[in-house]
Each structure stands twice: as structure tokens, then as C-alpha cells.
């Protein structure tokens, strides 16, 4: 699942390419919406809400999309060859100068713009909301500490608490806080620090395709622990450990340094580190 900054960046680029322009081609290749031709509509804007994207039109409707694990939006000039197979295209929005293609978008819905809250109203405060303020921070904190008995790694991922954190930032925030991902929220000395740090990291990477939490973009140095299982900790040289956190289909690998992040932890496994190419990064 992509991080909130990936979706934010996709929305920003789509907005710059499409907003204010009339569609020459507007296809939604989904059985439920296939009969809806969007050609002729003007795109009034594209906005991200957590990990959700809304492309809004001048007829009062929005096209909602969600990347899930493998979805992405690509931008092309007319006539350019697509970088993914055409059978994976789920939406095509073309103007005179740009062609936006949504690939492998499992969640697509046309709905009234005024009803967008039906799909995102359950979310916690969006960490990349331009209108973020003390009130939104306080609401995120209220939701966060209400999960007092839950593992901090899982609460960071819970979009109903605050929207935007994925597995990368979950692992990195826990490292920078110096706690194991399995630490109960009630044992955090400063819960607000988890929210502040999550927002800081997302903002730092919101306007570029590369994601770094260390301040370096060099290969192997961009993250403290994420996808570095079996390698040495960049801070103390202890071997980074990995283990699944969560149940069933919701389980995600957690990465942590047992020396820098004391606290409860399961028996670790060593996953080989690999290069990440997140969905939606282009």
C-alpha cells in the first residue's frame, strides 16, 4: 500500500496536468461505470485525502480512485507509448496536451462531489491536509491515545486514527521514537511525538518521488530500518530484524533495531533487503 505522500504527489501532478482543461477522452473501464463517458467535461481539480484521490468535474461529480497495492496514475503526452499494458488501464482522461492513465485501480467510483465524505468521512485527520492546524492535531492525538492497549506500529497504520502513514513510515517513526513497533500505545512517553514525526516525514517527501527519512538519498542510506532486514543499523551497527505484525491479510513486515528500539518483540526472521519501487511513484 503506498504512503500518503505518494498519493499526494500523484494528485498534485494530475491537478497540474488536468485542472481547468476539457476532456477529449474520458473512459472509466470498470463494469459498473463503463457506460459513463466523461469526454466534454472540464476537470475542476484533483485532490488527495489520505490515500484516496478525487478527480473533480464541472458537472458536480468526482472520480474516486485508490491505489491499493499495485495501482498508479501515469501522465503522458499525446501519442507517447504507455509504460504499462493497455489491459491494465482502468481510467483514461485525455486533454489536448496530456493523457492521464490509471493502471490497476481496483477501487473506482463516480459520485457527487458533495458526497465524497461518504468514502473518506471515517478517516482520521489527513497528515498532509493543507489546512492542518492545532485542532486536527488534537483530534489525531485523541484517536491515537484511545488505542492505549494496541501496538503502536498497528495504530500508526490505522487510517481511522490519522490518514497517510504506510508501512515505510510506520517502521521509520518507531525507530526515530526509539520504541519497538510492538510497544503498547499506553507505554509511549510522548504520544504526540508520534503524530508530529509522522507528519514531518510525510511533508519532507511530499513533493518528490524519492522517499528519505535519514536526510540522504544515496542507495542503502535513505531509510533507517525499512527494508533493511539483515543489514547493520546505520546508528549502532546491530543487525536489523524483521517480523510480521498484524493478523492475516493485514499482516505487514516490521523492521526494527533491537538495540535502538527496546521493548516487546516477537521472534524475528531475516528478510533479504530489496529495492523498493512503490506504486504510484513516477
Automatic annotation (TrEMBL):
PANTHER family: ENDONUCLEASE 8. Residues 224-262 form the FPG-type domain. Pfam families: Fapy_DNA_glyco. It comes from the Bacteria. Belongs to the FPG family. SMART domains: Fapy_DNA_glyco, H2TH. SUPFAM superfamilies: Glucocorticoid receptor-like (DNA-binding domain), N-terminal domain of MutM-like DNA repair proteins, S13-like H2TH domain. Residues 2-89 form the Formamidopyrimidine-DNA glycosylase catalytic domain. This is DNA-(apurinic or apyrimidinic site) lyase. InterPro entries: FPG_cat, FPG_N, H2TH_FPG, Nei2_N, Ribosomal_uS13-like_H2TH, Znf_DNA_glyclase/AP_lyase. It is an enzyme of class 4 (lyase). Its EC number is 4.2.99.18. The keyword Cell wall biogenesis/degradation does not apply. PROSITE patterns: FPG_CAT, ZF_FPG_2. The keyword NAD does not apply. Keywords: DNA damage, DNA repair, DNA-binding, Glycosidase, Hydrolase, Lyase, Metal-binding, Multifunctional enzyme, Zinc, Zinc-finger.
